[in-house]
Amino acid sequence: AYARVLAAAGFRVTEAASAHDALREISRRDFQAVVCDFVLPAMDGTTLYETLSEAAPALAQRIIFVNGWSGDPETSRLLEHSGRPVLTKPVEAADLVDAVRRAAQGT
């Protein structure tokens, strides 16, 4: 659903089935932003962010997190540490597009 919304807004979108797939794609080409759920198969969003921070620090500063629940201590620590935005599910299309535009512009 996110991919359709972003494509309709004019973004070129690459989807990844897992964090490992996402990291593989990131190593192959440049991306302006990353939209990442906290809950992922085999590697959670925190680990993906930490890995991305080492492999592509500039891109790690353009990640947008999506979260289905709030108040989780690990999630709160990551958001405080990273300073990255988080969109709470259900995500409104306009909020998603706005967050990706801001991240892609480095703001």
- Along the chain, the helix and strand elements come as HHEHHEHEH
Question: What is the first-to-last residue Cα distance?
Answer: 24 Å
The total of helices stands at 6
Largest sheet: 3 strands, parallel
In which range does the helix fraction lie? 40-55%
Rg (CA only): 13 Å
Query: Strand arrangement, largest sheet?
Result: 1-2-3
Number of strands: 3
Poorly predicted regions are: none
Q: What do the pLDDT scores average to?
A: 90
The class by helix and strand makeup works out as mainly alpha
Strand content: 5-15%
The best one-word shape is globular
Fold and architecture overview:
This protein is mostly helical and 107 residues long. Helix content is 50%, strand content 11%. It contains 6 helices and 3 strands, in the order H-H-E-H-H-E-H-E-H. The protein has helices spanning 2-8, 19-28, 45-55, 57-60, 73-82, 93-104; strands spanning 34-37, 63-67, 86-88. A 3-stranded parallel β-sheet has the order 1-2-3, covered by helices on one side. Helix 5 links the parallel strand 2 and strand 3 (86-88). Helix 2 runs parallel beside helix 3 (45-55). It is globular, with a radius of gyration of 13 Å.
